[in-house]
Amino acid sequence: MSIIKHHPFVSRFQGTPTSYVVHLRGGAVAHQGVGQAFWFRPTVSALSEVPVSDQELPVIFHAYTVDHQDVTVQITATYRFADPALASQRLDFGVFPRRSCDGQDGETQAAAILTRLAQSLVVADIAARPLDQVVGNVQQTHTILAGGFAGDQRLRGTGIEVVDLHVLAIRPETEMEKALQTPLREQIQAEADKATFERRALAVERERAISENELASKIELATRTEQLVAQEGANARRTAEEESAAALIKAEGDAERRRLSSEAEAAAKRLTTEAEAAGTAALMAAYADANVEALKALALRDLAAELPALSINQLTITPDLLSKALARLGA
Prior knowledge:
Distance between the termini: 192 Å
Order of helices and strands: EEEEEEEEHEHHHHEHHH
Strand content: 15-25%
Structural class: alpha+beta
Oligomer: single chain
CATH architecture of the largest domain: 2-Layer Sandwich
CATH topology of the largest domain: Tetrahydropterin Synthase, Chain A
């Protein structure tokens, strides 16, 4: 707000950047504009201060639909004084001399004008539509209000411009609102139940798929186990056959080696026997021409060869033995 300082016979006005001041002196405009500062004489001056900043106006009122249902409408409008000079002429924005406390200032008058216009536009629109269309089509109410504010002659003639508009809510009575919400709630509940059933069915289907996968895995494992057992049996049989074949080959080789060894031994023995027989025959032929005493001597030699070695410590020769030996030598 602006500041007015009073001095003897003269006063000082100091404006703000958000207020538009109109200084009338003797009925004529002496100063006007935003952020003005000037001296004036109180006896011949009148000051009007119009805010140029945006003003917020919340509006709440009731209306009736064509089917006689009460609804509560909540609106928020943002407006400003697009022509402050014109607004100072149509509405009471006087700051000097001070007005009485019972009078309404210009902002209150502007809010009343906007409120009445909004009520008239919305009530006429809602009265032509049933409740379900009113509650379900808030955009139409917004369009009606925006068009009504933009085309209203009084607003343009007062210098008021609506710069923003929001229809916050159009709500019926509590019981009727619950009744209107019931179909939607039922639909949402039905969709929730459907989602629950689908989720359960999906869970059952997944469990069935898991069980089938487990069963298929067990069958596959059993099949592979059977194949493994069969393969191990085949491998064992092949190993046994190979071992048997190897043992047979080894046995045949051993038998062949033993046969060859036996034949070699038999041949060696035969040759040895034949040699011994030939030697014996030659010896016998030699012995056939020898005398008896020579044969005895040979027999004693052979016997001595077979006897263990003896050490002779003392030899006694008797006269009989010596005479016999000499007799044999002389013969």
